[in-house]
What does this fold into?
Amino acid sequence: MTIYRSYIAGKWIDSASGKRVANINPADTRDIIGESEQATREETRGAIEAAYAAFKDWRRTPAPARGRILMKAVCLLEDQKEELAQMLTREEGKTISEARGEVTRGTNVVEFCAGETRRNNGETIASELPANFAYTIKQPHGVVGLITPWNFPVAIPLWKIAPALAAGNTIVFKPATNTPATAVRLMEIFTEAGVPAGVMNLVLGSGGEVGDEIANHAAVRAISFTGSTEIGLKLYEQIARRGIPFQAEMGGKNPVVVLEDCDIDLAVEHTASGAFGSTGQRCTAGSRAIVQSSIADEFVEKIVKRARSYKLGAGADASTDIGPSVDEHQFNTVLKYMEIGKEDGAALLCGGGRASGDGLEHGYFVEPTVFDNVSADMRIFREEIFGPVLGISRVQDLDEAMKLANDTEYGLSSSVFSNDYNSITRFVEEIDSGMTHINSPTTGGEAHIPFGGIKGSGIGPREQGSTSLDFYSEMKVVYVDATGKKREGNLY
It folds into this structure.
């Protein structure tokens, strides 16, 4: 059995905790992939100290030289794409096509950040004083903590690791407890690419111990987190007392507004893919369909038919459309919300329970589920489920649709299906979300385009794209006085 260990100061360490967590294939719980040793608070402290010690030399490494290391990592990721995708599928459960897409997305982000090491520019600024000018430079924070979730265990770590390294920071990386294999493989890839000992450290363990130490240690100068809004806000409160930069990409309850002038077949297909793809385990999943009443019956009939057409199974099978929930806890959470939907009075049209069938009995499979007549006071309208569950709300017009779409604590992604220019432009202007899509799903993004949300979905600068290095850098303003004379007058 494979044993996964933390990587600290250039060495794989045996934890003194004596605690191990099984890494279980969610499509077949009889398949124990390995066990991960859970690091102690003291071992986490050692990882932070190693990163602190390595920072002085790493920040002095020219940015383009750091970029060359990232490009070596890109080559390794491309060479090992299939191996990494298969590992991801077995560990997290998503389909092999989704896993390949995730590895590609993460690789693209690393490639983009490698290029940014040659474009991490400041600006020169004319002074109001004679023979004076000012300029800005960008400098790394120092040690940064990276805390990542299980639903994209390759892509999300990569879109934090790459800009952190590119900007000259050193890293303490804490992945989700239930996806250690992919985290260990990423550590191996960056080590092989040439990241020096201590610059990047991997610590496997719990949020209560490892995560808490990262949040509180004085040497950690910035923290980037992706996970639930509940945990993100608690972490934000904790970190705010230390006054250090914090970035969080959190939950979503993303609306899909479907208007009567849309291409209804397109709307059905994209709404279904956004709601049920990746088993609904995406912060950008389109879990609320807000449909104009004049077309609602047709939309409902077609999307129920589409939901019933999906094939469930192990992600490694290329014919599988939807894989399992990631683990028993998430599986039970989804089933609980299905019961809550029924109890609150939503009309269950399909699904609503554990999936059955050949090959599904040993996995955490839930049925693609559609509820109709979902009102704004129902929990399935308001709370993130993180499963293949779609709630449909019927509205009379765009005014009512906008009110419902924005009636949420979240603000990550959204989409509208319409062929009317005025409706589309109004939606783009008024929707409370950091990202919006026109006639396409709420999901998806590109490596060179910023990613993130507002309200309860995001804190701090956006990740990826032109903003990817913003969080990982401090701006310093430099004033240059070439007069050689005492300055007279008000110095502000």
Observations:
- The CA atoms of residues 246 and 317 lie 40 Å apart.
- The mean pLDDT is 97.
- The chain has 14 helices and 23 strands.
